[in-house]
Amino acid sequence: MIHSLFLINSSGDIFLEKHWKSVVSRSVCDYFFEAQERATEAENVPPVISTPHHYLLSVYRHKIFFVAVIQTEVPPLFVIEFLHRVVDTFQDYFGVCSEPVIKDNVVVVYEVLEEMLDNGFPLATESNILKELIKPPTILRTVVNTITGSTNVGDQLPTGQLSVVPWRRTGVKYTNNEAYFDVIEEIDAIIDKSGSTITAEIQGVIDACVKLTGMPDLTLSFMNPRLLDDVSFHPCVRFKRWESERILSFIPPDGNFRLLSYHVSAQNLVAIPVYVKHNISFRDSSSLGRFEITVGPKQTMGKTIEGVTLSSQMPRGVLNMSLTPSQGTHTFDPVTKVGE
Amino acid sequence: MTDSKYFTTTKKGEIFELKAELNSDKKEKKKEAVKKVIASMTVGKDVSALFPDVVNCMQTDNLELKKLVYLYLMNYAKSQPDMAIMAVNTFVKDCEDPNPLIRALAVRTMGCIRVDKITEYLCEPLRKCLKDEDPYVRKTAAVCVAKLHDINAQLVEDQGFLDTLKDLISDSNPMVVANAVAALSEIAESHPSSNLLDLNPQSINKLLTALNECTEWGQIFILDCLANYTPKDDREAQSICERVTPRLSHANSAVVLSAVKVLMKFMEMLSKDLDYYGTLLKKLAPPLVTLLSAEPELQYVALRNINLIVQKRPEILKHEMKVFFVKYNDPIYVKLEKLDIMIRLASQANIAQVLAELKEYATEVDVDFVRKAVRAIGRCAIKVEQSAERCVSTLLDLIQTKVNYVVQEAIVVIKDIFRKYPNKYESVIATLCENLDSLDEPEARAAMIWIVGEYAERIDNADELLESFLEGFHDESTQVQLQLLTAIVKLFLKKPTETQELVQQVLSLATQDSDNPDLRDRGYIYWRLLSTDPVAAKEVVLAEKPLISEETDLIEPTLLDELICYIGTLASVYHKPPSAFVEGGRGVVHKSLPPRTASSESTESPETAPAGAPPGEQLDVIPTQGDLLGDLLNLDLGPPVSGPPLATSSVQMGAVDLLGSGLDSLIGTPNFVSPPATAVPANLGAPMGSGLSDLFDLASGVGTLSGSYVAPKAVWLPAMKAKGLEISGTFTRQVGSISMDLQLTNKALQVMTDFAIQFNRNSFGLAPAAPLQVHAPLSPNQTVEISLPLNTVGSVMKMEPLNNLQVAVKNNIDVFYFSTLYPLHILFVEDGKMDRQMFLATWKDIPNENEAQFQIRDCPLNAAVPEVPSTGGVPARVPGLRDHPQELRPHPASAPAFHQPRRGAPWEVAAPPSPGRGRARLLAPTGFPGPDSRACPGPRDTPVLENPLFPLLLMFSVR
């Protein structure tokens, strides 16, 4: 199981370590640094590194490497998934997940990590439960704590922990009952020179923010559920009901959560809301070239398109570019070679 | 106010200051101090000196403070075991606390304190907690058993905690079940022999029920545990599959992959005719595709596993090619994995798409990736025959880009394409040759040389090309040297007239100037082949080669089956069985797929499939770098074998066996038939065998005789020294007569006539038996071959070295002198057999001073002569030749033989097959000036003697 966790910033300093079993010397990270040096970019550090006695599994998020040390045969996905969960939890607790924030809240971080894993076994990873055990630091609470001397550690066993709905605590009360659902879709498309779509598929998620009193049982139905190729649900969704009726039926967790993620494959004709045309030309005998992209809205059944950003990864050979947009602002970062 | 303030104390005496604060009366101050201590701990600062002070803070109602102290304890208890005892009382007390949270916390922390003395006190509270009414405490206690087991396994067994843990599998609360399973799995992993997770249908049922209700992590543990179970029939397998399938829709990718593992394993048991089987296949694809939209690290692990799944059941993802297309922003490790899977999925249906993609990739910036992409194009060509043409033209396009590494990779893969489709795409060779100069990697050079050699007859300037490579022969890597040798020999066999010089050059480079035994041996083999029987050489070297097969670097089926059982684990990431890399000491149980139960499926199940598969299948896989050498050797030697088909293993062993059988023929016992002798290609027969036997001798630079064996012609008199006359030649012995085969070449501009030859006096009285007869005048650039018969009646003079021969050749221009060494074997009679009595009599005739006796040490007898049971010292008595023991070179046809060592051992002895004693005899001419002139007996007593030769007696005894 997970032995230890090291947090390493992009300059290669270990700024936090946590051990769940016996202490593993931080020298084990040298192997990681070696791999880091070999990889030209931080993104390219291999996620699984083997050392003579341990295995290092790492994820890179928010410019921090989260390196887990394991010693026995453990499903690597389990470890990586857990690491991502750790990051999500930090983000949930502190708003952002960055080195200064983690350092500022080091005790809370330590307590949270201790609650999340016991002897390498995940203990409580649901944000709701964690927040009951260890309250996230807010300015108000800090003030209250200093005055009253109370702590931000819950002294009651989280109620959800053992119920059949572990994701929801009992006794939730709101004066305004509200629920929001965000549908976020990411379209992966390849568009040829003439502007016609070669392939396009959608990776979508439904994120929800539910603030409802008591134990609400919700159902959500889709116009055309057959479109969804592969879905993965939050544990709260009743799978049987989806299988038989294609209806989402669930008791939601309290607060923010991801209800489902889905995939619409290329077989279904994916309509892209914009059209894109591009043209690249190089002038002979000079190192200059011209790259034009035209983006415009397609018919979208009356919906408007907002916040269009265009970013383009330039090859390493590109030194600089002068951008002339017909609309909006533009930047070019010569380091990452991304023009926006 | 943030926690960062805890880091800011940098004053001197920090520890001291903290100590004071910890002992303060104020709760607030205490808590702040502990927080400071914890903060220092997290960054790796040593604050263990504060141990007693921190432990003092443990007795508190404040839960946060308690937790912080516990955190500290876990870290430092190990370093202060005596102090840690102080904490025990508090732990025991906390385990009785009415608040389940505190009970659980206490038992959890105690388990983390890895101090033996504490563990003793832990047992009682733990036992209580395992039976606690609150499931939260029970599930914590379950994990604690695993912790305790890690510290003191014996204690856990003695206390009966394992049985309690097993009971927890039937607990009413799914979370407790999951944790119990996880704990048991971990304990079982360190003790593979213990039968802890003894699963039966009842417990499986409980697990499946718990599966639906427990947390995602618990699901992973349960699924992994399920994967170890082997259902008793296909019905049970199906019902488990049905209940596991919903897990494929879980948001946690680890759950998905664990579910995939269970399904992949149990599918093995399902009959393919079942509708359910098809449904299951269909259900497996979407979740796998979805895994690829996760974070890159997850993608990587998923892709490694998909790689296995695609090999095992390609049908699952055959329509999903597009999802494996590389995205521009994928990390490199993801890109490489995707590429690999793309090739595995490539088929006739999607090849156009794949090729278009690969071509794009080949113009990317990342060198590794581009290389792999180019290689992938080649693999596509080999895999999908219909696409070969397109692949080749794509590769040509890429070569036109002139990007160095692209060109080199392209040439390497084109070589493979040629091997798969011989005589089909030769038109591209011209393009390849254009890029000859830019090749700087050994692999690309070797590939190019191979192509030139293979298609030498179609490349006009093949000899020039190869010659250009030959210039820097010694600087090339072995791979290139070997290829160059083979290619030039091929070229020579195809265009013998123009390339003789070239082949001589390369053979001498390979055999004389190289330290590499492989290169040398291959050089000798070719040399012998060429000089013995050029036709046979042609058949051997230019034989039709087996086509390489389409599937490359597949994982071996049994390993694949094992790895399928490890989907989702580290083993699947490394594509190695866990036994290959898991820390030693912990045994690993080998897992295997369950056999399919339906008998109708038997032919399709992997267990029985290999029986029907052609045995040569695995041989055809493209060899890796390391195999190249052995492979080429086999390719060149294997095919011409007629008669009984060779066993695969004997082909693999080719080189070794040939040497072995060569030795056998050298020993020449008629009743001895060695089994590996079958490896000698039948149509090559004896010359081949004995030719190889001479490999041993050649190391000394001079060949020996065996029947029709003739050493290759060497240039005796270069044209430069003889005003345009070049003489090369060799000595042969055929049916009792010695002859000198001469080749005279006129490299001058004028005609040469009036040839005559004369020998100086020499050790064995060699003299021409007939005048040198060159019938017609030798016009410029003409060559004549003359066989000059010799006898041993000439006058004798001891030469240094013994077999030195000084020759004078006269023609109309001038008289030229040269000297050469003749192989002693041409002097030996074919029938050297002697009657025992006569031998002893002759032996006695030789004065004792003429007897040389020496011990042969460290001779590797058992390798060369399997019949000699022991490898002892072999004393050899060599009378008459005391001063020249190293010149001993008996006729291979007469039983025992000395050999100059190839390397290492001072002597190699081939003894007769009967253990014990053997003898050998050398015949030398009369008047041989031995160390003592009295030692030269006349020909009086040996009927086998030819002319006035004197006997040389050898006696061996083998201990």
UniProtKB/TrEMBL annotation, chain A:
Domain MHD: 176-340
A biological-process GO annotation: intracellular protein transport
InterPro entries for the chain: Adaptor_comp_med_subunit, AP2_Mu_C_sf, AP_mu_sigma_su, Clathrin_mu, Clathrin_mu_CS, Longin-like_dom_sf, MHD
Subcellular location: Cytoplasmic vesicle membrane; Golgi apparatus
Keyword hit for Protein transport: yes
GO terms under cellular component: clathrin adaptor complex; cytoplasmic vesicle membrane; Golgi apparatus
Main location: membrane
One Pfam family named in its UniProt record: Adap_comp_sub
SUPFAM superfamilies linked: Second domain of Mu2 adaptin subunit (ap50) of ap2 adaptor, SNARE-like
Membrane topology category: Peripheral membrane protein
Keywords from the UniProt entry: Cytoplasmic vesicle, Golgi apparatus, Membrane, Protein transport, Transport
Highest taxon, organism lineage: Eukaryota
Record-stated family: Belongs to the adaptor complexes medium subunit family.
PANTHER family assigned to the protein according to its UniProt record, in alphabetical order: AP COMPLEX SUBUNIT MU (PTHR10529)
Protein name, per record: MHD domain-containing protein
Organism field: Eschrichtius robustus (California gray whale)
